[in-house]
């Protein structure tokens, strides 16, 4: 399990032992584990996405693109694409292996939640204006 606290810490936890395993530092506004569990992506307070290797607890990539706070993230079911949503009214799709930005989708509202359909064909947004949108997942 991972948590991001108001004290600026990003922590990994052993749920069974109920103990902190690592403190990765830096604050976060959103977290997402890769479906395999070996990667953790954290949205930082300065609007970047940081990819962590869970086992080594090392940062392996940092991606920039959002102009507002990143509020949510979701991995595609196959783990190849990360979607990030923001108060800047965009959803950005990222290739996990290359870090390349695949697509930017502009919306008319802030994005507060993201969820892929089980087959990965659709991405759903929960929006700041109480609406939901369905878009292509890739």
Structure characterization notes:
The chain has 138 residues and is mainly β. The chain has one domain (29-39, 46-136): Lipocalin (Beta Barrel), CATH 2.40.128.630. Helices cover 0% and strands 57% of the residues. The chain contains no helices and 14 strands. The protein has strands at residues 2-4, 10-14, 19-23, 28-33, 39-44, 48-53, 58-64, 70-75, 81-86, 90-95, 101-106, 111-116, 122-127, 132-136. The strands form four sheets. Strands 4-5-6-7 form a four-stranded antiparallel sheet, with no helix packed on it. A four-stranded antiparallel sheet has the order 8-9-10-11, with no helix packed on it. A three-stranded antiparallel sheet has the order 1-2-3, with no helix packed on it. It is globular and about 40 Å long. The mean pLDDT is 88.
Essential attributes:
four-stranded antiparallel sheet; Lipocalin; mainly beta; 138 residues; single chain; 0% helix
Question: Strands, helices and their partners?
Answer:
Elements: E1 2-4, E2 10-14, E3 19-23, E4 28-33, E5 39-44, E6 48-53, E7 58-64, E8 70-75, E9 81-86, E10 90-95, E11 101-106, E12 111-116, E13 122-127, E14 132-136
Antiparallel strand pairs: 1-2, 2-3, 4-5, 5-6, 6-7, 8-9, 9-10, 10-11, 12-13, 13-14
DSSP summary, beta strand count: 14
Q: Bin the strand percentage.
A: over 45%
Total individual domains: 1
Query: How do the strands of the widest beta sheet line up side by side?
Result: 4-5-6-7
Task: Tell me the CATH architecture.
Answer: Beta Barrel
Low-confidence regions: none
Could you say which structural class the secondary elements and strand pairing correspond to?
A: mainly beta
Proportion of residues in helical segments: under 10%
Radius of gyration of CA atoms, rounded to a whole number = 15 Å
In the CATH hierarchy, the third-tier topology is known as Lipocalin
- Ends: how far apart? 27 Å
**CATH class, anyone?**
Mainly Beta
* Mean pLDDT over all positions: 88
Can you write the helix and strand succession as a string?
EEEEEEEEEEEEEE
The gross shape turns out to be globular
Number of helices: 0
State the major sheet: 4 strands, antiparallel
């Amino acid at each position: 399990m991972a948590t991001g606290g108001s004290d600026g810490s990003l922590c990994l936890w052993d749920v069974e032992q109920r103990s902190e395993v690592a403190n990765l530092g830096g604050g976060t506004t959103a977290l997402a584990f890769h479906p395999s569990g070996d990667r953790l992506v954290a949205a930082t307070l300065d609007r970047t996405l940081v990819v962590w290797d869970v086992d080594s607890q090392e940062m392996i990539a940092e991606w920039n693109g959002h102009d507002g706070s990143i509020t949510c993230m979701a991995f595609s079911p196959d783990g190849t694409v990360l979607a990030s949503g923001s108060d800047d009214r965009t959803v950005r799709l990222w290739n996990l292996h290359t870090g390349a930005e695949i697509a930017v989708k502009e919306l008319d509202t802030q994005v507060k939640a993201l969820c892929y359909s089980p087959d990965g064909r659709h991405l759903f947004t929960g929006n700041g204006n109480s609406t939901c949108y369905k878009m292509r997942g890739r």
